[in-house]
Amino acid sequence: YASDGDVYFDVSRFPEYGKLSRRSLEQMQIEGGTTAERKRSGADFALWKSAKPGEPSWPSPWGPGRPGWHIECSVMSGQLLGETFDIHGGGLDLVFPHHENEIAQSEACHGKPMARYWMHNGLMQASHEVGKVGGRTTRPAEGDQQAQEAGKIAGRHGAQSFLVLLREQGFAPEQVRFFLLSTHYRRPIDFSVERIREVGVGLESFYRFFRRFQRITGEDFYKVPFARRRSEGELNPAGSSFLEAVAEQRNRFLEAMDDDFNTGGAVGVLFELLRRLNKFADEEKLEDPLARSESAVAMLRQGASTLRELAATLGLFLRPAKPPEAPSDNLVGQLLDLLVEIRADARKAKDFAAADKIRNRLAQLGVVLEDRPGGTQWSLRK
Asked: What digits encode the pLDDT tens for the residues 151-210?
C-alpha cells in the first residue's frame, strides 16, 4: 500500500511472516521508527522510499524515490540466482528484520520458497568485550543474538580498522584463516591479537611436520598428491594399525564437517592426525636412514596425503607459507646459535629450568627451537 510517497508491505497479508526468526506478529508490533505515522502496522516495512533532498532517486508511479533496503536483495538474488535458490547466508544480526522481510516480499511475489537453506554466522567480538567488530548498531534481539549485538564496538573497531590491525601485526593470511576456522561459524568469534598469536603457535606445529616430512622423504609436502573427492580419499589399511588410525581420523573430520560445517571440530581432528603422524615417524625412526623401512616411509606418505586432503577442504596448506625474513645481520644468527649452544649445555648439566627459560623466552620473541636427533635448530615463526 502507498502512503505519502512511500510504499509498504502489509505483513498481515503474509501468514508465514516471522517463520525464519520464529516471532509472532504480536511480538513484532514495534513502534515503527520515524515513519510510524505512515504505516498501518509497526511491523510493516518499506518497499519504496520517497526521495529526500540530496539522495539519489528515480521516477515511479508514487513520485521520485528509491528502492527500500530489503527489496534490493530480493531483486538481485531473483535476477542472478532465480526465484528459488539453494543457500542464503548472512550475519546473525540480519535474521530479523532483513531476511524475514526478504522472504516475505520474494515469496509473496513468486509464490514459491526463496531459499532452501539459511545459514547465519556469529559476530566477531573483541576479546573480553561484548559486541560486534565492525558494522552498525541495530535493533535489540533475543537470546544469543542479543548478547552478541549488545554494546557494539563499531565506532572503535570497524572492519577497516580490523584489517589495518592485521596488517600492522604482520599476521599471515593462513594464520587469520586458521583463527577463523577454529570457531563454528554460528558462534561468536573472540577476537584478540593474543588469540591469533596462539593460533599461530599451533599452525607452526604443522609447518614443522612439513619440514620433517621433506627430511624423511626428500619430497615437498605441498606437492604430495591428494584426493579431490570424498570417495577417492578412502584408505585401505591392509592390517596397518597406523593407517587404521588415519582412516578413523579422516572419518571423524568428515563427520564434523557434515555436522553443520563444524570447522572447529574439524581443526581439532587435524591436530590429532598431526600428532599421530609425528608419533609414527618417531616409533619407526623415520629420520634415521639406517633404521627406517621403505614400507613405513610409504605409509607416512599416505598419512601426509590424507592430511593434505582434509586441510585442503578448509583451504589450508594449499601453497607454502611465505617465510619470514631471515635476520639480515649475521651477528643475530650467530647470537641465536650461541643461545642454542648454551641451552644444550644446560640440558647436559640437567639444568632444565635454564633450558626451558631460554626456549620459552625465544618463543615469545618469535624464534622456534626444534630438538632433533642431530641437534637443535632454530627458525623464525611464520
From this structure: 343 444 455 567 777 777 778 899 999 999 999 999 998 888 888 988 988 999 999 999
Total residue length of the chain: 382
Segment 205-225, tens digit of pLDDT: 999 999 999 999 999 999 999
Domains of the chain: 2-121 (3.40.50.620), 197-313 (1.20.120.640), 330-380 (no CATH)
For residues 255-282, one letter each, b for 16 or more C-beta atoms within 10 angstroms of the residue's C-beta and e for the rest, the string is: ebbeeebbbeebbebbeebbebbeebbe
Residues 6+ apart with CB under 8 A from 293: 284
Q: What is the pTM of this model?
A: 0.72
Residues 6+ apart with CB under 8 A from 69: 46, 98
**Residue 60 to residues 2, 39, 51, 162, Cα–Cα distance (Å):** 12, 20, 11, 41
The C-alpha cell at 256 is 564434523
Q: Tell me the three state secondary structure of residue 340.
A: helix
* Closest CA relative to residue 270, chosen from 255, 249, 289: 249
User: Please, where are the H alpha helices in the chain?
Assistant: 69-81, 100-110, 143-149, 159-169, 173-181, 193-217, 241-258, 263-283, 294-313, 330-348, 352-364
10 Å Cβ neighbour count for 247?
Answer: 19
What's the CA gap between 325 and 306, in Å, rounded?
31
C-alpha distances in angstroms, 381 versus 163, 175, 238? 21, 11, 38
